[in-house]
């Protein structure tokens, strides 16, 4: 399936599978154009043969072939094109273990397969081309419950479980859009493995883009130094480039591989000593659209706050227990980055170094970026008080939680609140 530019191309093949390995016949889709096809800077900057070719990867997808099907459905190609356009427009890359929250059946049917995980294609190994190295990342369709498990634990762990269940993917992780049961319904013992993994490993999801906001309750809203309205001259205060870089680092996957989690120092550049299992994106995905209006970093001071009010939509709020149990109780950090502005909220544990929130001043802000330091004792209490976040079907909005002695308030609000540009 082709289009007017390179990102639109997807090849489709009939794969006979491998009966000896219990791999069924399926359709195999492979993109081309995310890697460099030409080497002449026409689409991608040519950086040499030793580095990545273009974005360094192509997407693949394996769809179970239905009985009597003589031609491959085209919707997987359109799905892959949508992901490719996201990569081209944002210049953010994918890597094995990543997840994509889609919130819709991948084929626009009534299927329970509504999200995606990414992993290495089982047949297509990385290749060295004249224009650099290309790896092949396979899209794997999953149910909502499996996505949540990947968020709470990690993508690779869930992919390994999917490989053990033939109808849920099997060794080659073939997507069956007619699958009506999750792996936890097929084999209830798998939930125990996930629970143990979360308890032992925590979550490797270090942050999400979300609908969120925060208010400084210790300062009147009309104060000229309100958290999101400070101005120097006529320039609104926004995230500095260095703050943006630091927040982007917290959102990148794999931070838990450090023996002692570290937030990069505010004054650090890209070389900050962190180890990651993915290449940096070619563009800072958190860069403000109004970058020209960013106030010089050195003019923004870090402020200690006495009382804060956190606001989340329901989908973001449902991740708070994951943040607390899977990240902070394991000595890590978790960041919410607003999708509607420069606001960011980072929760940190006492084991995280480099944060500007401290035990003495647990709420601290640097421009529109808020950090909240929570002790293990308080995290345990919050988990008890927020237990109903795990039952969204019984949840009624708006919902408010308050810890007066900690001067902390959390509100779960309708999406419309965050869609209002005056919010």
From TrEMBL:
Similarity comment text for this entry:
Belongs to the SUFU family.
Keywords (A to Z) from UniProt:
Acetylation, Cytoplasm, Developmental protein, Isopeptide bond, Nucleus, Phosphoprotein, Ubl conjugation
Q: What SUPFAM superfamilies does the record point to?
A: Suppressor of Fused, N-terminal domain (SSF103359)
Q: Name one GO biological process term.
A: signal transduction
Task: Name where it mostly resides.
Answer: cytoplasm
UniProt cross-references to PANTHER family, sorted A to Z: SUPPRESSOR OF FUSED (PTHR10928), SUPPRESSOR OF FUSED HOMOLOG (PTHR10928:SF2)
Cell location: Cytoplasm; Nucleus
In this protein, which residues make up the domain named Suppressor of fused-like? 3-179
Tell me the gene name.
Answer: Sufu
Region span, Disordered:
262-289
Write the lineage as a comma-separated list: Eukaryota, Metazoa, Chordata, Craniata, Vertebrata
> What protein name does the entry list?
Suppressor of fused homolog
Q: Which GO terms describe its cellular component?
A: cilium; cytosol; nucleus
Pfam family membership, one? SUFU_C
Q: Which residues form the Suppressor of fused C-terminal domain?
A: 192-412
Q: Where is the composition biased (Basic and acidic residues)?
A: 275-286
